[in-house]
């Protein structure tokens, strides 16, 4: 088989494999999100990050299939990462909030509707969790105030879950 046909065949296989991998990952994240009672908006962050990783790996494989030398590609990626690193250094809090949202999604017992107390010596916030987005946790305090807390602080501060509304919902089912 001539070289050009081999590259086209491998490119087609890569595209089909990428589409299949994305659908498998999407289904797995949806199932995990439903089982753990995670809000749709919180799942979007994980969808976007997983898509980014899958596309990056697929484009890398595609460039290798079409004959880009790995050394040249490594220099290009290192240059891009250096520029991004300088740009993101100024926005470090944004990256830490996104990472904290992913941690909250997969491993933190905090869910929407939970009544929580933020354990902080400066603030006494007790209330219900209304939403968890890519950057913030929104809660309504017992005295009616709406408090917005960056997700990286939710990970750093202690949180006491006073009652778990999602457990009550599961018990009713």
Question: Can you walk me through this structure?
Answer:
With 173 residues, the protein is of the alpha+beta class. The chain folds into 2 domains: 3-90; 107-172, SH3 type barrels (Roll). The protein has 6 helices and 5 strands. It has helices at 3-35, 40-65, 70-89, 92-107, 151-156, 165-172, and strands spanning 115-119, 124-132, 136-141, 146-150, 158-163. A 5-stranded antiparallel sheet has the order 4-3-2-1-5. β1 and β2 (124-132) form a beta hairpin. The longest helix has 33 residues, at 3-35. The radius of gyration is 22 Å and the shape is elongated.
Strand order of the largest sheet: 4-3-2-1-5
As a whole number of angstroms, the C-alpha radius of gyration is 22 Å
The major sheet is characterized as: 5 strands, antiparallel
Q: Which H/E pattern describes the elements?
A: HHHHEEEEHEH
Percentage of residues in DSSP E strands: 15-25%
CA-CA gap between termini = 59 Å
Number of domains: 2
Report helical residue fraction: 55-70%
Give me the count of strands. 5
Given as residue ranges, the uncertain stretches (5+ residues, pLDDT < 50) are 166-173
Counting DSSP H or I runs of 4 or more residues, the number of helices is 6
Net shape: elongated
- Residue-averaged pLDDT, rounded? 81
Structural class, from helix and strand content? alpha+beta
């Amino acid at each position: 088989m001539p070289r050009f046909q081999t590259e086209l065949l491998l490119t087609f296989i890569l595209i089909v494999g990428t589409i299949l991998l994305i659908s498998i990952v999407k289904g797995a994240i949806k199932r995990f999100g439903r089982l753990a009672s995670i809000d749709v908006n919180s799942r979007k962050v994980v969808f976007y990050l997983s898509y980014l990783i899958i596309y990056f790996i697929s484009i890398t494989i595609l460039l290798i299939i079409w004959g880009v030398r790995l050394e040249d590609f490594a220099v290009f990626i290192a240059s891009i990462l250096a520029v991004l690193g300088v740009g993101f250094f100024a926005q470090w809090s944004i990256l830490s909030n996104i990472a904290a949202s992913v941690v909250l999604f997969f491993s933190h017992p905090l869910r929407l509707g939970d009544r929580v107390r933020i354990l902080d010596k400066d603030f006494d916030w007790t209330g219900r969790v209304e939403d968890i987005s890519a950057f913030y946790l929104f809660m309504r305090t017992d005295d009616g105030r709406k408090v917005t807390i960056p997700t990286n602080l939710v990970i750093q501060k202690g949180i006491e879950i006073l009652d778990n509304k999602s457990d009550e919902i599961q018990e009713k089912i």
